[in-house]
């Protein structure tokens, strides 16, 4: 089972809506709201082969958050801020959701 195009468009629209309605909320607060959306969406589609769709949504989310941060800093550059706000900043400092992969069981013997 892979997410259809309609599902990907819908989750992207939800992310865009959260960012647009963020107003004066801090970036961490906006990321918390985005995390709730992403966690539910990823957990629903995790069962199937969805790595391409996950990659598409992850890239879109990173771009939107970097664009938000660039606007808030009022930089007049055309870039989205890949150097200034690295993945390490997005995931470690802001706490963006990062559980896109299925993790193998660590203790298989406990389930036998």
From TrEMBL:
Which UniProt keyword terms apply here? Nucleotidyltransferase, RNA-directed DNA polymerase, Transferase
Q: Where is the Group II intron maturase-specific domain?
A: 10-85
MF GO annotations: RNA-directed DNA polymerase activity
* Keyword Nucleotidyltransferase assigned: yes
Q: Return the protein name.
A: RNA-directed DNA polymerase (Reverse transcriptase)
